[in-house]
Automatic annotation (TrEMBL):
Lineage of the organism: Bacteria, Bacillati, Actinomycetota, Actinomycetes, Micrococcales
InterPro entries: ArgE/DapE_CS (IPR001261), Bact_exopeptidase_dim_dom (IPR036264), Peptidase_M20 (IPR002933), Peptidase_M20_dimer (IPR011650), Peptidase_M20A (IPR050072)
Keyword Transmembrane helix set for record: no
Peptidase M20 dimerisation domain sequence ranges: 190-330
Name of the featured protein: M20/M25/M40 family metallo-hydrolase
PROSITE patterns: ARGE_DAPE_CPG2_2
Keyword line: Hydrolase, Metal-binding, Zinc
């Protein structure tokens, strides 16, 4: 089947500016939602649009499968993107131009290209009169790029019935290929670190900048941010990460040993994704923003900073206590966005179906699990008993540093990868 519609879908979605500025209204989320709803309606499905706040919309639709006695699977994505500034880009970020056999634009990777790939797979199956193996709940959420409070989290809290008792889900940031020891290896995301976005509030005594001060809010906060930012979190291998490292070691011809030196050697052998995998092997805490004062010669009584903390499964409280110790007595830590760590099994029938689908396009495909250092809307679905997996199958060109393209200037995705991915998703949905 021609993939012209796949390319057009990707370009159409990128050209809708759905930049997520956090608490401010997204400029195009409703426009994108209505585009997807129309697409699904044209296929004979009956989509529902739900609005958490004006303009912050999510679309869901039930696609009936051959075996309706089984719990549904959720096929989901998000339609918002992080902002992009045209002056920084080689090509306009919302033009979706094609150069070097790639579609360039904000959201090409995260995740409008993947959304188009999913929608194209649904279209191809319906066009041939087919049905998926079981019921599929199709969902495209708002607000994923700012924690999902107006998207997946809101849907789980207010409309869990839309998910119809589903037990498994697939979405972004998994299933893409990397070269490990010369073998094409697909990393299926089965776990995610937890997210704690923290506000640090330093307090002191306000006064004139020319005087001697021993209780300075800015100094207290700066010390806390420095200690937290330079803290060396120890290596901590979870079951998911151990399975990845053991599999990678075998491909690299190395003996697996849980030592810092051997782990570093294995991670280095993962090439372009090594930094992403490195971050999944320990807790992390990074200062990201500062806000204090209003005049150079006035010492403020309050200074505020922000920390992006990502913790391993089961370690939320432990990490928070450690950060409180590092912050010190003059700095209070407040949580303002919290998403749990999640971990799903790899040796399970739905993953076996993913691997089988991959091998229809790449017979020598090797698949390994991995833990994502960030987060997806699967975290919210986990609250209603849905095991989420990252399965956006992309056969990537060797040497492409795919992981660095997320949220990046000049974000782009190979057309050939989308083509193969759509084929694999079709095979998976027919067998899932």
């Amino acid at each position: 089947m021609s993939d012209d519609s796949l390319i057009q879908l990707t370009q159409d979605l990128i050209r809708i500016d759905t930049s997520n500025y956090g608490d401010a209204p997204g400029p195009g989320e409703r426009v994108a939602t209505e585009y997807v709803a129309t697409f699904l309606s044209d296929l004979g499905l009956e989509p529902t649009i739900r609005e958490a706040e004006p303009g912050r919309t999510t679309v869901t639709a039930l696609w009936e499968g051959r075996d309706r006695t089984r719990p549904p699977l959720v096929l989901h994505g998000h339609l918002d993107v992080v902002p992009a500034f045209p002056e920084e880009w080689t090509y306009p970020p919302f033009a979706a131009e094609i150069h070097d056999e790639m579609i360039w634009g904000r959201g090409a990777v995260d995740m409008k290209g993947i959304a188009a790939m999913y929608l194209e797979a649904v279209k191809r199956i319906i066009a041939t009169g087919g049905k998926p193996a079981r019921d599929i709940v199709i969902a495209f959420f708002a607000d994923e790029e700012h924690g999902g409070r107006r998207g997946a989290s809101w849907m789980v809290d207010n409309h869990p019935e839309d998910f119809r008792g589903a037990t498994e889900a697939i979405s972004e940031v998994g299933g893409f290929s990397v070269s490990v020891g010369g073998r094409r290896t697909y990393l299926i995301q089965t776990a995610e670190k937890g997210i704690s976005w923290l506000r640090l509030v330093g307090t002191g005594v306000q006064g004139h900048g020319s005087l001697v001060h021993h209780d300075n809010a800015v100094a207290h906060l700066a010390g806390a941010m420095s200690r937290i930012g330079s803290h060396a979190w120890p290596l901590d291998i979870t079951p998911t990460s151990e399975a990845l490292l053991r599999g990678a070691a075998e491909l690299l011809g190395l003996e697996y040993e849980p030592t810092d030196e051997r782990i570093a050697e294995i991670v280095a052998g993962l090439g372009p994704v090594s930094r992403m995998i490195e971050a999944s092997l320990r807790n992390t805490s990074n200062p990201t923003m500062l806000d204090a004062g209003y005049k150079t010669n006035v010492i403020p009584d309050v200074a505020t900073g922000y920390i992006d903390t990502r913790y391993l499964p089961g370690q939320q409280e432990q990490v928070l206590r450690e950060l409180e110790q590092l912050a010190g007595s003059h700095v209070k830590i407040e949580q303002y966005i919290e998403q749990p760590a999640v971990e799903a099994p790899f040796d399970t029938p739905v993953v076996h179906k993913m691997i089988a689908a991959l091998r229809t396009a790449d017979p020598e495909a090797i698949a390994l699990p991995y833990m994502m250092m960030g987060g997806t809307d699967n975290k919210h679905l986990a609250r209603i008993g849905i095991n989420g997996y990252g399965f956006a199958p992309l056969m990537l060109p060797d040497g492409l540093d795919f992981s660095s393209l997320f949220h990046a200037i000049d974000e782009r995705i190979p057309i050939s990868s989308l083509r193969v991915g759509a084929d694999v998703v079709v095979e998976f949905l027919l067998d899932c």
